[in-house]
Design a protein that fits this description.
By secondary structure, this protein is of the alpha+beta class. It is 27% helix and 16% strand.
Length: 344
């Protein structure tokens, strides 16, 4: 339907980036302003126009640094497509496949960014329903962007659906019954954390005969059995997110973030090694000991932030716990990051 070099309006197709069950994503160039964008072309072009607009309308309601931004939706030469920001980098799936288990602090940093995106979507009553590393993009700066909301629905529609949607290894038990709730996305977060820290899924794609074991939690082996270096506090977070009962799982993305923040200081802080006390020089008889002068330390100059345009503040309060630029924890009600000076 779309090929390399083809022009759709002002957009010139450069190459295909990937294809899923609902559409193909292409790298394209906006020939008016010489900017690269991502263009998603749905497979089912015959759908009602209002149904084609469902995904871009959902994305338009989600304005967050950790969610892929939709620019516009157009129809040119009989082809409907969605124009989104292009995130140069790799998917989280590719990173896990190439590196295996990720460093603990990096995995927690990625998790916090994913949870921030999920929290924002849930506050808009939007459920992703297909949250997995293949749909999470990692920019060259390490900023995560959750994308592919093609399967997303508003809560009141998704909770009463009958269609099974999602990727089975990441789907919560209730999704196999065609029902999706906020806790379904949190289950997917737990699977993603498990995969980042072990390099493996908690279980392979469930077969019809495995569904009863999935509903009782028998399929999930604790992650420390695969990676003993995972701290017990982090394993508890993962296992709570993966509980088969919605009521026993985390009830909000904010709860996951709070538990990670509570556990993280003990994980990243190391006791400072005290420097050995230098021996005082022994003065010759009849002379007072000479105390060596302390070298004068000149503080480094404070340089202003390199970026001149501040980013808008995220709507959800939980999103302000980490700086959008350097991703370091922020003090309560901070208007500016104390580490990189970016306005929040």
């Amino acid at each position: 339907m779309v090929f390399r070099g083809q022009t759709l309006g002002k957009y010139r197709i450069i190459e295909a980036l990937g294809s899923g069950g609902f559409g193909t994503v292409y790298l394209a160039e906006d020939t008016w302003i010489d900017k690269r964008v991502a263009i998603k072309v749905p497979h089912r072009q015959s759908l009602d126009f209002s149904e084609l607009l469902r995904e871009p309308r959902l994305l338009a309601a989600l304005d967050h640094p950790n969610i892929v931004t939709v620019i516009t939706a157009e129809k040119q030469d009989g082809v409907f497509f969605i124009v989104m920001e292009y995130v140069p980098g790799e998917t989280l799936e590719t990173i896990i496949l190439e590196r295996g288990p990720l460093d603990l602090n990096l995995a927690l940093d990625y998790t916090c960014q994913i949870v921030n995106a999920v929290d924002h979507a849930h506050r808009q009553n939007v459920i992703h329903r297909d949250l997995r590393p293949a749909n999470i993009f990692v920019s060259d700066r390490g900023l995560l962007k959750v994308g592919d909301f093609g399967t997303s629905r508003f809560l009141e529609l998704a909770a009463h659906g009958t269609t099974v949607i999602g990727s089975p290894p990441y789907m919560a038990p209730e999704q196999f019954d065609g029902r999706a709730v906020f806790g379904s996305d949190l289950y997917s977060v737990g699977v993603t954390m498990y995969q980042m820290l072990t390099g493996e899924l908690p279980y392979e794609m469930p077969t019809p005969g495995d569904l009863d074991k999935l509903r009782t939690g028998e399929l999930v082996a604790p992650p420390r059995t695969k990676n003993p270096d995972i701290p017990p506090a982090i394993e508890q977070i993962i296992m709570r997110a993966l509980r088969p009962s919605v009521e026993e799982r985390y009830q909000s993305a904010e709860e996951i973030l709070n538990d990670i923040l509570a556990a993280r200081p003990a994980l990243v802080r190391r006791p400072a090694r005290s420097a050995p006390t230098p021996a005082r020089p022994v003065a010759p008889a009849g002379r007072l000991p000479v105390t060596p002068a302390r070298p004068r330390v000149t503080p480094p100059p404070v340089t202003p932030s390199a970026r001149a345009v501040p980013r808008p503040r995220a709507a959800a309060a939980v999103a302000n716990r980490f700086c959008w630029n350097c991703r370091k924890p922020l003090p309560s009600r901070a208007e500016r990051c104390p580490f990189c000076s970016e306005t929040q």
